[in-house]
Design a protein that fits this description.
Blueprint: H1 8-14, E1 26-31, E2 35-41, H2 61-82, E3 102-111, E4 120-130, E5 134-143, E6 146-156
Antiparallel strand pairs: 1-2, 2-4, 3-6, 4-5, 5-6
């Protein structure tokens, strides 16, 4: 997969999320209109660890799912912004400027291992379907090359 590094400034310009709800730190690879790889450094200072769970902190599964959804949104917005001239012929993608994607559904969700402070959550997403009003992706979240979670997610915009 071609390497395309996007840091926090690019991510902030592409997603509406802000601290403490921005759950992607860096995009490390992008194959426009197909797939993206990113990561989230999970630190002990994350606000959710105060209550989930004291003495045995674990990243909530719903936030792992949200981090995959944010990576999927980055796949769409970065492809559209930086590779608009490479849209596959069979896709009918409108201009996404100023539009926000909303999480619509998740299917085949499985959580495989805990995510704890100090872990790097590697995120891999790829398009399953892309339309003019919605898209569906397959996502995986990994820690040390072990699958922590997987899901198929749909979003509308």
């Amino acid at each position: 997969m071609p390497k395309a590094l996007y840091g926090v400034k690019d991510i902030l310009a592409s997603l509406p999320h802000r601290y403490p709800f921005l759950l992607v730190d860096r995009v490390v690879a992008l194959e426009p209109w197909l797939k993206l790889e990113a990561y989230k450094n999970v630190t002990f200072n994350e606000p959710f660890f105060q209550g989930h769970f004291p003495g045995q902190p674990v990243m909530p599964g719903v936030l792992i799912l949200e981090s995959m959804a944010q990576a999927a949104s980055l796949l769409l917005t970065l492809s559209s912004r930086d590779f608009h001239d490479q849209i596959p012929r069979d896709l009918k993608v409108e201009d996404l400027s100023g539009r926000i994607g909303y999480f619509a559904s998740s299917d085949r969700v499985k959580f495989r291992r805990r995510v704890e402070p100090g872990d790097r959550l590697d995120l891999k997403v790829s398009f399953l379907r892309l339309g003019t009003r919605a898209f569906k992706v397959s996502g995986q979240a990994l820690v040390d090359e072990q699958k922590a979670a997987e899901a198929e997610m749909t979003a509308t915009f």
